[in-house]
Write a structure and sequence with these properties.
Layout: E1 6-10, H1 17-31, E2 36-40, H2 51-56, E3 60-63, H3 68-78, E4 82-86, H4 88-101, E5 105-109, H5 117-128, E6 134-137, H6 140-143, E7 151-152, E8 169-173, H7 182-191, E9 197-200, H8 206-210, E10 217-221, E11 233-238, H9 247-254, E12 259-261, H10 267-270, E13 277-279, H11 285-297, H12 300-317, H13 320-337
Helix pairs in contact: 3-4, 4-5, 7-11, 9-12
Length: 366
């Protein structure tokens, strides 16, 4: 076992999908016996929203100075086993610093949206500099971009051992920005005024959306964690225009909440029609509305069956037990490519008690 930590680098000021992934990765590494630290490239406020979760899980974290020199200094002082970057800014600076300090480096590419303006430029630089790192893409769509030899590895989440009966609310969870389609979610709610909708998140479209005053939509705002809210939700509705493999979809299914979405990014690989959720053609709000009404009319016993199928899907394909070995293989390639020795692997984590349950079930709903 190495005495040198795995440094997980991100540039972040709020909670989101990448932050959820970083937390899950840090926790999975720690639980498997690998020392891991989360490095924030710079500090934007007194406390990052991820801090409480990292503290509760005893995952060490630190804030850097927000420049290349500070990152190089941290790498030379700490001498981590490797640096694992997440997000375009962390990726660009992380690779440059790793090359200068001779640190093995792995980068995960999360974003399904190419962006506009400066974001588009940074995303392009992120892809072009991928020649310097071992790379992970979380969806086929992302892997097809100008990324050097990406490994296709899915996101993953922890599955709770107990989950409550499904709730009633139809939820949107995410950043209130164009690519996530919260405006389409509101249009869907207008189609179905007799059903309860909840919108979790904040972002640049928030005030515009609130002005629409859709009576059956509750604006829940930005929440630190969805853990206490999944019990109120029966269906996660994703109206995104672009996606990678959204952590929120995995988190919902890990809590027994099926997903209704457009087939973008990695969602078609996650959702088995009528087994653990449904997809509707991109932009087809009428089709999505019909599927939503169909779900709402299902007997509670069938909804419970859907929930069990969701949990089985995550355990068997999107849990740390299923995904972490592949990430460690990429780590090993990055370390050995620099001429360093790879430490002995710890024993694998025990399987989740619900593993394999419903894996071979062929019956679908709808």
């Amino acid at each position: 076992m190495s005495d040198h930590p795995i440094a997980i680098l991100l540039d972040s000021r709020q909670a989101g999908g990448i932050e959820s992934h970083v937390y899950q990765l840090g926790k999975a590494l720690k639980n498997s016996g690998w020392p891991a630290e989360v490095w924030f490239f710079q500090k934007y406020q007194n406390e990052h929203p991820l801090e409480p979760a990292l503290t509760d899980s005893a995952i060490h974290f630190r804030y850097l100075s927000g420049n290349l020199a500070g990152l190089i200094s941290a790498l030379k002082d700490t001498q981590p086993l490797l640096l694992h970057s997440h997000g375009y800014k962390a990726g660009i600076f992380g690779r440059l610093a790793a090359v200068i300090s001779r640190t093995p480096v792995v980068s995960t590419f999360h974003n399904g949206d190419p962006g506009e303006g400066m974001v588009r430029l940074y995303s392009l630089l992120d892809q072009l500099t991928s020649l310097m790192s071992e790379n992970i893409a979380i969806s086929e769509e992302i892997a097809k971009r100008w990324i050097s030899a990406p490994h296709r590895i899915d996101n993953f989440v922890t599955v709770p051992e107990h989950y409550p009966p499904p709730g009633k609310a139809i939820a949107f969870v995410g950043r209130l920005s164009h690519e996530k389609g919260p405006d389409l979610f509101l249009q869907l709610a207008k189609h179905l005024p007799h059903l309860p909708f909840r919108l979790y998140g904040s972002g640049p479209m928030e005030k515009i959306l609130q002005k629409q005053q859709v009576n059956n939509v509750m604006f829940m705002g930005q929440v630190q964690s969805m853990e206490a809210h999944w019990r109120d939700i029966g269906l996660l509705c994703m109206t995104s225009r672009f996606e990678g493999l959204p952590m929120v979809a995995l988190e919902a299914m890990a809590h027994g909440v099926p997903v209704l979405s457009f087939p973008v990014g990695g969602l078609p690989d996650l959702i088995v029609q009528g087994f653990n959720g449904w997809t509707s053609p991109v932009g087809d709000l009428d089709g999505m509305s019909n599927l939503l009404q169909f779900w709402y009319s299902l007997p509670e016993a069938v909804k419970w069956q859907l929930g069990e199928a969701c949990i089985a899907t995550v355990i068997n394909k999107y849990s740390s037990q299923a995904i972490l070995p592949g990430i460690l293989d990429v780590y090993q390639q990055a370390v050995q490519a620099k001429g360093y020795d790879w430490p002995n692997l710890p024993k694998a984590s025990p399987a989740h008690p619900l593993a394999k349950k419903n894996q071979d079930r062929s019956q679908t709903v709808g």
